[in-house]
């Protein structure tokens, strides 16, 4: 049996709409991501467990694991014949529509687990292509800002070139990332519909400048410069209307030395970046008390996960 784990991720990282993503790892050692078991079986089957299992469709053919298996086996059958059948168990630990790469985590864990189970026939770029395709079936468009960091780990820039899907960037290891899920659901497709179809020339230039400066600052180790451009001019002005309490949360984070504050992916999860644990703890406590809307919500102090997804034979 193979057990695969894929961490939560934050897409966009404010300044990099659809082009930046980062894998997250709680500093307390808890797992923040989905797990998938793949084991030999006489026939294919799917079982779903975990805290958010009840949020998924009851029909196995509507489960993303079913589509992952179908797609993977189809690709692998082109290379190998007589495949040993398998069954899969999904431990759904991430909430759906949370802005934490929930679907990406399931896709990455499923495909990484299948690839390991069948002897790693596909390389990293081939895997990323498959992951992007499967993620696109859920969100309505192929994009890699969650699957790439979830799979590769760290902070990732989407290159989307034929021979290079994603590029891992340098990171500031001492930064703390407070991520708070409010408990409500915001679907990626809904969050995209609220955005304008065209972006002004001014905002386009700002977006390009910020992304270029940010990547430069990472490579030169300039933390202050990197933090200064972590502001979303593309999506946040529109999407924050979907997030109750967003402006108040941003104000508190800014008043308590957060380097940056923004929407994780499509929301409703928000994130604050801090360069000291004390500020991160204060912001984490406040978000836990004021931003969370129901019992499904949670808040974690994280750092970036350098490893990404893992697959272990049990």
TrEMBL record:
Transmembrane spans: none
A GO molecular function annotation here is: homoserine kinase activity
- Domain GHMP kinase N-terminal residue range list: 70-154
Tell me where it resides: Cytoplasm
The record's Pfam families line, in alphabetical order, gives:
GHMP_kinases_C (PF08544), GHMP_kinases_N (PF00288)
- Please give the pathway this protein is involved in: Amino-acid biosynthesis; L-threonine biosynthesis; L-threonine from L-aspartate: step 4/5
SUPFAM superfamilies this protein is in?
GHMP Kinase, C-terminal domain (SSF55060), Ribosomal protein S5 domain 2-like (SSF54211)
Q: What does the entry list under GO cellular component?
A: cytoplasm
Which part of the chain is the GHMP kinase C-terminal domain?
A: 215-291
Q: Which reaction does it catalyse?
A: L-homoserine + ATP = O-phospho-L-homoserine + ADP + H(+)
EC id? 2.7.1.39
Main localization is cytoplasm
Q: Which residues bind ATP?
A: 95-105
| Alphabetically ordered keywords of this record | Amino-acid biosynthesis, ATP-binding, Cytoplasm, Kinase, Nucleotide-binding, Threonine biosynthesis, Transferase
GO biological process terms, semicolon-separated = threonine biosynthetic process
Physiological role: Catalyzes the ATP-dependent phosphorylation of L-homoserine to L-homoserine phosphate.
Family, according to the entry, reads as follows:
Belongs to the GHMP kinase family. Homoserine kinase subfamily.
Q: What is this protein called?
A: Homoserine kinase
Q: Which organism's genome codes for this protein?
A: Bowmanella pacifica
Gene name linked to the record: thrB
